[in-house]
Each structure stands twice: as C-alpha cells, then as structure tokens.
C-alpha cells in the first residue's frame, strides 16, 4: 500500500511538472505557430539582436529581460510596433504580430503583464504605417526613463507571472 | 645592282659607326628580360585569375569535401550549396573552414542570415554568414552570390556591407556559412 502511495505521488509530481511546460508552449497568446515565429525571428531579427536577444550596446539595444517593460509605460506598446526594425521588417502584418508577441514572451516573460493583450495584425498594420526614423533613439530613451517610475508594478507583475 | 650594293654598304657602315657591339647586346638583353616580365604584369594575372562574381577561383586550393552525402560539394568553390548568398573571400581557402574562422581572427556575432537549398535533399536550410575579423583581407577565393540579397536600404539582408560588427576589430578577413537549422516547409 505504501509502495502504491509512493508511485502515485511520483506520477502526480511528474504530471504537475510536465503539464505547465507543455501548456507554456501552447499558451503563447497571439502566437499561432511558435516554430514559424522562431524562424521569422532567426531570419529577420537574430542577425543583429543575437540568438539570445542580448544585442550589442553600441548598435542594437538589449531585448532580453527588458522588452516587455515597454508594455508598462504609456506609449511603449506603440513604440514596439513603430521602432524601425519591427515596422520595416519584410514580414506580413500577421507574421510580424506573431513574431512580436513571441519575442515578448520568449525573451522577457517576467515583465509580460498578466492581462497582456497580444498584438493583432490590424494593430501592427496601423502602427507600422508611421515608423520611427532617426528619432527612435530619443523616443526609446524617454520611455526607458519612465521605467523607473513604474518599477513597483513591473516587479509585482514579474512575480505574478513566475 | 651596284646602286643597291652602294646603299646597303652606306647604311651598314653608318650603323657600324653609330652603334657599338655592346649596345646590340643591351638591346637583345632587354628584349629577353622584357619577354620574361610580360606574364608577371597585372594584366596577365587578371586573365589567369578566373575569380569574381561566382566564377570560381584561380587559386589552386585542394578540394575540401565533408564526405557526407548529405552535404555535397567542394567547400573551396563558390558553387558549394551553402554559399548561395556569400559575398567575400571563402574562409575555407584562408586557413579556416566553411564554418570556422582562420587562426588569429574573430568570428562576428552579428550576421546576415538567409536560406539555401541543399541539393542532397532539396530542403531549405537557414544559413548564417558570419564574417571573420581582425586580420586584413584574405584575398583568396572571392565569391559573390546573391540569392535573396536585398539592397542597402535593407541592411539586415544585404551582403555588401562589412558585417564585422560586435568584434574587437572591424577589419574583414573572410566569410563563413554556418548552418543554423532546417527551414520549415513552406505552406
């Protein structure tokens, strides 16, 4: 009887561990096909942002652990659709929305808001029509400056997710 | 006839008076040296050098094959399947391989990434063209193939720019073609 209880416990633990992992892959909001999103990331983004999205200080800003924080500041959500690398990528609106949602969840899960509304193709289509140009760096710096003010909420959201 | 004899005699005597035997030797010597240097001139070298724009190379590099039927071709030739969008000197000819840098150079982490079709299985593979940086241009096996290459206004998909970015030196040496994975089937 004791043996039965132990094996039941092992099976239950195994199920509990694997379930969220599988659920996590499928439950990427706004990402219909994670493999396709990853391939588009490799072909369109990775060359400069690097495979782990750490970027290069002088040329390409770090996305890992940072990018979803834009969703917490006013204007940040729009910025992510208007930044030149996103807006001018050689992808359809649908593919672009998918890869953007994917990269937020893949590279900065701790900062994705609990009530995150995924980007839709329509929203991306609207945002990319007016891409930022040389002013992108200034806009980004302004948004980054606001990160500090919203740090409390960000931290909380990060904990909620994890 | 005597007039012709007279004329030849005059000319011969004039030449003999005006020139020395040494100057004849100088002339012949010059001609021999000139003939020997002619093939060394840049014009002649350009002809024997086949290279440029995917035309293969005149460098005599031993063929490099993986021996793997899944990876056919000679990695020192421009028509090797992974080089479908390479622009530069092949690292295979410069002391490295198709996916590694020659000693003394550093591989750029910032790259341009495209796809090439493998003739062995007709599937598209994702290829990253990592430049090797830190020494002056290798100068051997120049290739320029441009499948899906985009103009300079789309720098992320352009192979004409120097991709020695994020390295300690921006000096370009040669290019590699690293397989990142198999591309998804297009629906």
From TrEMBL, chain A:
The lineage of its organism: Bacteria, Pseudomonadati, Pseudomonadota, Alphaproteobacteria, Sphingomonadales. One of its GO terms (molecular function) is electron transfer activity. The keyword Signal applies. Residues 1-23 form the signal peptide. InterPro entries: Cyt_c-like_dom_sf. Keywords: Signal. This is Cytochrome C.
Automatic annotation (TrEMBL), chain B:
It is found in: Periplasm. Its EC number is 1.4.9.1. There is a cross-link at residues 112-163 (Tryptophan tryptophylquinone (Trp-Trp)). The active site is at 112 (tryptophylquinone 6'-substrate hemiaminal intermediate), 131 (proton acceptor). Disulfide bonds join 78-143, 84-116, 91-174, 93-141, 94-138, 101-132, 133-164. Residues 49-58 have a biased composition (Gly residues). It catalyses: 2 oxidized [amicyanin] + methylamine + H2O = 2 reduced [amicyanin] + formaldehyde + NH4(+) + 2 H(+). GO terms for biological process: amine metabolic process. One of its GO terms (molecular function) is aliphatic amine dehydrogenase activity. Residues 73-181 form the Methylamine/Aralkylamine dehydrogenase light chain C-terminal domain. The modification Tryptophylquinone is found at residue 112. Pathway: One-carbon metabolism; methylamine degradation; formaldehyde from methylamine: step 1/1. Substrate binds at residues 87, 159-161. Keywords: Disulfide bond, Electron transport, Oxidoreductase, Periplasm, Signal, Transport, TTQ. It is an enzyme of class 1 (oxidoreductase). GO terms for cellular component: periplasmic space. Pfam families: Me-amine-dh_L (PF02975). Its main location: periplasm. Residues 46-73 are annotated as: Disordered. Belongs to the aromatic amine dehydrogenase light chain family. Methylamine dehydrogenase carries out the oxidation of methylamine. Electrons are passed from methylamine dehydrogenase to amicyanin. Heterotetramer of two light and two heavy chains. This is Methylamine dehydrogenase (amicyanin). It comes from Sphingopyxis witflariensis. The lineage of its organism: Bacteria, Pseudomonadati, Pseudomonadota, Alphaproteobacteria, Sphingomonadales.
